[in-house]
Backbone:
């Protein structure tokens, strides 16, 4: 896609680029292409993977580590970012998620509750912490834009998504409620993008990911949205063309969320249909 310099003069922070498959990685490339300046941030443990420094070179940006569950680290990150970028921010991408229960394949009925608290803290409450620190430190310019990534399992049951479903429901609720407060005080808009299954480290960690992926692809009239298309959508939300959009959960899923069943899935189901079945 051509650069229209939609983000010329805008400054931001992009959380969550782990490697080139990450959604945040694609957002960083597009934001750079569209003229933005930004800092890349990830957890200290993720920086050990080193890929993010390659992204920093490609996008002429700096990397600052922060564990999003630690308020003091967010305070230091925001202060250092405003110093490096010489001013307040116009956009923040929250592209962060992690569930120890999912990682350790613990069955949903037997969740480890300490792990569940970690899932909620990293994947949802971290958005509240970011927004709260940003508001207190007056980090975001008027009409700035915050985007968080979510998944439709917040609204419907996807049997193996485990406690990430609760985390996404909390995340979307924070988007609506903080969207009110930050909108009233500073005209800051806050939205979540509900993205198709995408082949990333977090995505493929969910058990049965390939079935999620191909089922959604065959259900959706446009097929699955990939990370690059998701990045394009993020750019529009950071731009001045969406100034009155806030507190929304926006589906970016090729039409999946409006479907019941598709002809493709009917055909596939019929192929494996048992003709002797009587129920
Ligand atoms: N991949 C999918 O299928 C899919 C679909 C819908 C939504 N999402 C969401 O998109 C977002 C980005 O995930 P992704 O798919 O690009 O995978 P990813 O694994 O590339 O990104 C997840 C990021 O979270 C970071 N992270 C984890 N714990 C952290 C902490 N304590 N502090 C700071 N950062 C931390 C990781 O280091 C990583 O960079 C997540 O919120 C995910 O739930 C993904």
Residues:
């Amino acid at each position: 896609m051509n650069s229209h310099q939609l983000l010329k003069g805008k400054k931001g922070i992009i959380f969550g680029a782990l490697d080139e498959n990450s959604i945040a990685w694609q957002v960083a490339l597009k934001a750079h292409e569209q003229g933005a300046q930004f800092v890349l941030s990830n957890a200290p443990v993720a920086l050990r993977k080193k890929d993010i420094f390659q992204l920093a070179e490609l996008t002429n940006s700096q990397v600052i580590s922060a564990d999003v569950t630690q308020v003091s680290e967010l305070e230091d990150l925001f202060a250092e970012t405003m110093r490096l970028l010489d001013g307040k921010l116009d956009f923040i991408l929250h592209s962060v998620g992690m569930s120890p229960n999912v990682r350790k394949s613990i069955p949903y009925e037997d969740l480890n509750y300490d792990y569940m608290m970690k899932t909620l803290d990293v994947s949802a409450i971290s958005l509240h912490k970011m927004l709260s620190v940003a508001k207190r430190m007056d980090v975001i310019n008027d009409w700035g834009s915050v985007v968080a990534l979510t998944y439709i399992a917040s609204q419907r049951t996807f049997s193996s998504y485990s406690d990430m479903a609760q985390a996404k429901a909390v995340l979307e609720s924070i988007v609506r409620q903080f969207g009110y407060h930050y909108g009233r005080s500073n005209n800051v808009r806050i939205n979540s993008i509900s993205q198709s299954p995408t082949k990333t480290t977090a995505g493929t960690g969910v058990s049965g990911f390939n079935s999620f992926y191909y089922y959604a692809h065959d259900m959706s009239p446009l097929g699955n949205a990939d990370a690059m298309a998701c990045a394009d959508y993020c750019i529009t939300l950071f731009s001045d063309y969406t100034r009155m959009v806030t507190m929304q959960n926006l589906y970016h899923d090729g039409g999946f969320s409006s479907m019941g069943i598709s002809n493709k899935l009917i055909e596939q189901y019929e192929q494996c249909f048992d003709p002797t079945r009587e129920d």
